[in-house]
Amino acid sequence: MKAVAAYKKPILFAMGFLLLILSSVGYSQPQPQPQRIASLNICIDQLLWELVPHERLVSISYLTANPMWSPIATQVNGIPLNHGLAEEIVPLTPDVIFAGEFDAPDAIALLERLGHPVTRLPLPRKLEDINTQILQLGELVGATEKALSMTQRNSAQVAELQAAQKPEQPLTAFWYSSNGVVIGDGTLEHELMLLAGLRNLAAERGMIGFNQLDLELLLNAKPQILIIEESSAEAFSLAREYLAHPALANAGFKIVRLPAGLSGCAASVLGDVAIALKQELAK
Question: For position 239, what pLDDT does the model report?
Answer without folding.
Answer: 54
